[in-house]
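Practice problem: predict the structure.
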Amino acid sequence: MARSCWRIAVAAAVLIAAGAACAAEPPLAGCYERVYDAAHLAAHKDQLVTRVTLSVAKTDAFDQNGPHPFIADGVLKMWLRGKDKSFDSVGACWAESYGLFCNASLSAAEASTCRTKQDGLRECRIDPGDAGSFKVEGKPDGVLISIPKRIELLQQPYDGGPYLNFSAGNAENRAFLLEKTACP
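Answer:
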C-alpha cells in the first residue's frame, strides 16, 4: 500500500512539474509571417490582405480564472493592397484543442455604427462592443490563422478609424497560412 502511494505521489509531482513547464511557454509561442506575391494576388483578386504577421507570447494578463484562463497574447497584423500601415489586433488568448482562441482587441474610440455588415475598410464600426476573434492552429511549418465569426482591426494610434472588418463568410480574407520566422 505504501509503495503504491509513493508511486502516486511521484506521478503527481511529475504532472505538476509538467504543468508548470507548460504554463511557462504558451502553445505556438513565436513569430509567424506570410507575404503574398504578385502571382497569388493576381489569382485572388478579392483578397485584400498582402501581408500577415503574428506573434504569440506568454501573457501578463491578470484574469487567469474562469472557464478560459488567458495564457498568451497574440498580436495579429495585416497589410492591405494600397495601404502602407498595418491593421492590428492584440488578443488575449486561451488554449483550445486545435491551438489558441484569441479575442480581438477592443478600441475605446468613438465611431458611428456601420449601416452595413459588409467586409472591408470602413470609417464606422460593425459592433463597438465586440471586436470579434481569431483562431491560431498549429501546422507543420507554421500556423493557420482563421476568423471563426468576424474580426475588427485598427491602425495605430488606435484612437479612431479606419476599421478593417472581415467575416468568416469572406472566402478570400478569412484564413491565412503563415510560416514560422525569427522574432524581431
